[in-house]
Amino acid sequence: MNKFQFIHTPIAGLYLIEQKIFNDKRGYFMETYNYKAFKKAGLDMVFVQDNQSKSKKGVLRGLHFQKKHPQGKLVRVIKGEIFDVVVDLRKDSNTYGNWYGCILNDENKRQLYVPESFAHGFLVLSSEVELIYKCSSFYHPEDECGIIWNDPDINIAWPLDAVDTVILSDKDQHWSSFKAYNRRNDYL
Ligand SMILES: Cc1cn([C@H]2C[C@H](O)[C@@H](COP(=O)(O)OP(=O)(O)O[C@H]3O[C@H](C)C(=O)[C@H](O)[C@H]3O)O2)c(=O)[nH]c1=O
């Protein structure tokens, strides 16, 4: 029995994942991750750290990435709803600089499998959200980088009509542009 459905996206290596849900009179059960099943589908990242965060409506976290220690991620929402976004920062990718966004919520129970070298961010659409995500490398605060959420060149179509205001951390208000990131990268 295939308990996972791996759904291709327009970006190579980036997958939406749906799980078989075993409903019964008590409620439901589902496997949310299974290394063997994922590896069989060619998704062989090994995860070393799990994160969980809670945010209220309108919070936008991102666009974050680690440069020297890139983190692949497996993102899911256990309460509420987000518009989840990733940006392809793989230098050799033909979708470099492209973004992909999707709705993850506790109804569709979908997950987003994000390869390493992507920026990640999300906008909270429900009154509050709790999300969990697995990471393929450890947190390195000294290596944390970001791109400003409303960068005009990436041009993410955030569903801003769904929120009254966008709430950002101080840090997330001051990331540089994608152009500045590329200029810096040219010298590396
Ligand atoms: C990410 C992280 C943070 N922290 C500590 C550091 C701060 O004192 C506190 C909040 O961190 P921060 O404001 O960076 O949390 P987010 O804004 O949710 O950052 C995350 O948001 C986007 C959407 C991501 O995908 C990344 O995992 C991550 O960058 O947690 C840790 O101790 N370990 C960690 O792995």
Automatic annotation (TrEMBL):
Keywords: Isomerase. Homodimer. Belongs to the dTDP-4-dehydrorhamnose 3,5-epimerase family. InterPro entries: RmlC-like (IPR000888). Its EC number is 5.1.3.13. It holds the Pfam family dTDP_sugar_isom. This is dTDP-4-dehydrorhamnose 3,5-epimerase. Catalyzes the epimerization of the C3' and C5'positions of dTDP-6-deoxy-D-xylo-4-hexulose, forming dTDP-6-deoxy-L-lyxo-4-hexulose. The gene is rfbC. Pathway: Carbohydrate biosynthesis; dTDP-L-rhamnose biosynthesis. GO terms for molecular function: dTDP-4-dehydrorhamnose 3,5-epimerase activity.
